[in-house]
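User: quick one
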Amino acid sequence: MKSAIANSRLLNIAPSGIRAIHERKRATSVDLGIGEPSLRPDIAPFEAAVAWVREHGCPYTTYAGLPELRELVAAVYGGKFFQTSANVCATNGSQEAIYLAIKTLAEPGRDEVLVTNPGYPVYHKVCELEGITWRAVELDAADGFTPRAAPILAALTPKTRVIVLATPANPTGAVMPASEVRELARGLAARPGPPIYLVVDEVYRELSFTSEPHASFADLYPHTLLVESLSKSCALTGLRIGFLIGPADVVQAAARIHSLMLMSASQFGQRVALGIFRDPIRLRAQVPWYVEQRLATLEAVAANRLHVVEPAGAFYVLVRLPERLAADSTAAAYELLDKSDVVTVPGSVFASNTEGYLRVTWAASREAVIEGLRRIAEFIRD
Amino acid sequence: MKSAIANSRLLNIAPSGIRAIHERKRATSVDLGIGEPSLRPDIAPFEAAVAWVREHGCPYTTYAGLPELRELVAAVYGGKFFQTSANVCATNGSQEAIYLAIKTLAEPGRDEVLVTNPGYPVYHKVCELEGITWRAVELDAADGFTPRAAPILAALTPKTRVIVLATPANPTGAVMPASEVRELARGLAARPGPPIYLVVDEVYRELSFTSEPHASFADLYPHTLLVESLSKSCALTGLRIGFLIGPADVVQAAARIHSLMLMSASQFGQRVALGIFRDPIRLRAQVPWYVEQRLATLEAVAANRLHVVEPAGAFYVLVRLPERLAADSTAAAYELLDKSDVVTVPGSVFASNTEGYLRVTWAASREAVIEGLRRIAEFIRD
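Assistant: Done. Structure below.
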């Protein structure tokens, strides 16, 4: 007899390791697990959106989203190549933008998607769901897992159609240096034959703490698809508003898939976004808190003599487990939760080369981060 | 050279005929085209949702949605078989629920999906996007395109895995009689072998104007997937909140696809929905307006001596074109727009057996419907 769920690809995809440990969390737990800001969002854009709905109702938007919003988003993120509303589709969070980019650009059974190890597991799970082959390029632990051009360019094959990259990255907090951004753009542009598309997940774009100015692929490589979101910069994970930005032909094709899948992103959510992008300084309003939080985190790391991958961006720190625990970060994370009541995410969730680490989110409250790191140190020493 | 858009299936899907004519609309046009309520939504649930965000922020919900909301939705729609939160996934509108149901239940290259002609074109376009074979069962124009059990049961083959059905239906307004609901449930249950899943699009459920009480497949056939939405009943098309309701194993698998595609539906949108489902009389608050509007529409139809398929539900009426125009409803609709400035949707958009009709939406304002029908009659007579 056929099983209830016919989609055989779905059955082979590993469940979310992040949500799995989260479900074991107790009311008392110090939660440094899920990647979610503990700050409150600015309420003013919500109030403005409700005022708009009171006056105009809550009608459909066009499939790709409100033209004014898309123009403003293009102005903030679009760089040299993607300057108009035709280059932007508003999505149900960045996750939908990633899904659309892969589904639009890669042909099952023919093309290959390249991801990095470690990386956000959804990139390769989306490929698996869609029946698209993927491969991973290993980033170097000794180099802080920094994404660099050379290993990515070396990993390309004639089948590579799409590269998915995040900077700042999850789970490492690594930021791709500007020189590497330029080198990768140059290297990809120099390749003969059909273009390789570069999907750049920038959900942590505002949360970069290097002294370098941001180097954008949207200024350097025309076959870029940027993935943006309000989730992290504005503490709006639950609003589910993100953006896919790139060449108009690709974005318009993605918007068609988007329209068949779910019509459009929420009018209300897009109105909240409009309030933010009309005054784009709001995108950075919470950055000073993260700067301080990062310093406090690194101080606590030092005080507790923990070994970590120092993050240049995002809001995670990878804590290295001692040899006795390093072979099984999943067991370590669950034992830490059971014994010390701290939620973290095992490095094995992300890739084999982050086995031996725990991902600690420092977007939690200051007290939680400090107390959590103290307990982690204690647990590791025991 | 490869084209920018690799997904070859996408390239073969016809564009939306509904949106196409909508894009030709002028500022002066009488718009009886797109299926969108002209009423304003109740603002109270929005204000309550903002108050919640002010206090709690806007965090992620679980993938399938807020447990309290899903419980309340199960209580309203779940019938005998689907009584718990595990039977419900909150989606980005009903369109996502349809997409998830088809993608979860049908295996490309193996299974077949059965739809009705006429029907909402997205059903078969989703199949095309996913590489799933579909076939249509023709509903009888002389019978007002009423969905009946016998022709559906007669159309099943060993490959049929999913049936997609709408009641009340778009574009016809037809409602499946209770006796036919029971007969189809019985007929499907009596089939040997693996179950055939029945996806029932009920976005117009609250807008049924027959004297019969609602007969729910959720009471009669355990392999049902209900698709519900706040869009039509509550004038919330832009909120993008719908629900997939059915057997827990199917809904949980669909929620996994949903999580990989877009994480979850909006926290804010779900909070608005919670305000409605905590006081579910709100789901029917606008029904009296539709009852009156339908009568006014049918009066105008009679006064203008138009020939229509009289709607038992939803908010459309199919106007029959005279012989001289009936062979090309697309040409007629565009000519009507050019000459008389009325937006309608050509019947050919929906199926070959609605060629010869125009779909007229009477969810527009009273004045627009009366003036639009007057102009249609004038156009037809000319």
